[in-house]
Amino acid sequence: MFLKYKGLFVLFCLFSCLFTIAGRTETGSTAGLAWRLYIPDGDTDTPRPLVVMLHGCTQSAADFANAVGLAALADEHDFLVLFPEQSNAANSLRCWNWFETVNQGRSGEAAAIAAATDGVRARYAVDETRVIVGGFSAGAAMAVNLAAAYADLYTGVMVHSGLEFKAAVSSTAAFSAMSSGGPNPTRQGDLAYQTMGARAQRMPVLVFHGGADYTVATVNGAQVSEQWLRTNDWVDNGEADGSVDTLVDVSRQDSEPGGRSYTSLLYRDGEGRDLVAQVIVDGMGHAWSGGASGAFTDPSGPSASAWLVAYFGLDGAISDTTPPVTLAEPSSGTYQNAVTVDLRVNERAVTYYTTDGTIPNTDSLIWDGPKTFVSDTVLAFFSVDTAGNREALQRADYTIERVPDTTPPTTFADPPGGTYSGSLAVVLRADEPADIYYSLDGSDPDAGRLRYAAPIIIDADTVLKFRAVDTAGNWEAVRTEVYVIQAVTALVLPALPQESGTVGRYAVDGVTVGMLLAGDPGMYNIERKRMIVSFDLIAVPVGSVLEAVSLQVCREALSGSVLELEIDVAATVFGGDGALRLADFGAAALASRIATIPIPAEDGDCVTVALPDLVTELIATGERLQFRFKAVTAVDFTRDEIKLSPAGATAPRLIIGVR
Length: 659
Fold this sequence. Notes:
Structural class: alpha+beta
Strand content: 35-45%
Largest sheet: 10 strands, mixed
Radius of gyration: 31 Å
Shape: flat
Number of helices: 9
Strand order of the largest sheet: 1-2-4-3-5-6-7-10-9-8
């Protein structure tokens, strides 16, 4: 249960009121992650709420703790505050790497923060119904990752100047999202629910954002709200059906005495409970609202820390006395052959059940996912929430009518018969549980022939016959697919040295024919050089049928951290005649990011990447083909550049399948 909306303008004595800090700070590390834990004085045996706060870029845990002033509020309202700290080794600017996919699930930095949270729960009495994760900027974006991946651990999330779930999955995309917003928040809400999986729980959200934030654009705050409303719509009943909508329930205009004005928007669920609160502070930039004086703080805004305490009920004013409600889906009834049942609870709870006619208790089996019943079943169950409220006994009765199966299965070959180049793997699939038998010699298969267990490799002309028999003994008729395999030869085209080289962003960067270099010279991750690689297609036989096309490149040298190369393609060449020019750096491409090239592990190593059908079409119709390679580099102050071998046996090569 969370604080009912009272305008959320309850007066708190904020940390600026010069509270005397009465508690103590404990430091340590978990899973390689340093942290600071603030512990108020008081009864350590009574469960207390826990707030996990993640700092922004360039900040330390101590800097952030001083900026937000939660220690004074923790003393007043008796809750714990954990400040994990990003290391310089993980990110030179101390940014949480929220945009890396490894940190968007139950692994990487997210797993380390969750482990530190669990460590506090193991050492101190923690109120499991109030474990809040929040943060500022990159820390807020990481808090969103944790709320989705660890919905079984955190009960609410505060997002201050942050972004929606998976707003980016690379550093380049991160800058784009920060400046202009992330992907469609409806789709990102779906992804967050998928990430929650079986741990999906209602997730209240508090969003703060400056109305003049040009580091993380204000639109991101609105996207966070919309994304979490969509996620909570899924959580509400397992459907995206609008049971939680995006209509504002309460809208208010207020101002901080002697400070900034702001707008607050409150969204509630179908039961009238606060679900998402969004605060937009007029004229505020990229700063913690109401924070102490210092970098990335704005003391003239409403106190985001006080809002956090009020919104998530950390003042202890609210207690949960309402038992959970558990529903069986589908409900009682008569079903044919089998039925798969799931139990859904409207809040965080443990569900106990039996299927043998006995009455369940807290020593009974714990529901951990959908169950399939193949015979008459009485499902008895109840749930207990984290506050100890126990639901009344529930029951669902399932009657299974066995219907004789007289229908044979149907088996399909993927891919079907036809003319193909090179070998292929054929998969056989039946439309129901069945054993599949096949032959490759033209004979009719039966139970004494080859039994299908893995994809069938076909590398020569073949007549494939197959049929399946289901568990009821029904045999399908023999099915036949004929495969004709045509030989494919590989045509290898080396890059044209006179039309391949490096082009710079500015005149001072110049143009260098015969050298392939891409990246940035350091300082703020500004890309300065790109590679142009050109191929002459005159050697492609006229009228030939082209198959898969791939590109091979070899690493000559690497400085700093280059994550990958992105490939753009021109219709023929980026310039008018193939000669390299500075304008090629930003010239319009026929298609951008048609493929990405992973960085070879060592100097001298080569990688080969498949190119899309668009390239095959260009080769079939043109005389020239030109690519532009753009380096995706780490966000740091060091030189991040990659150099590819420009000539000889290790020059870039276009490999074309021809038949």
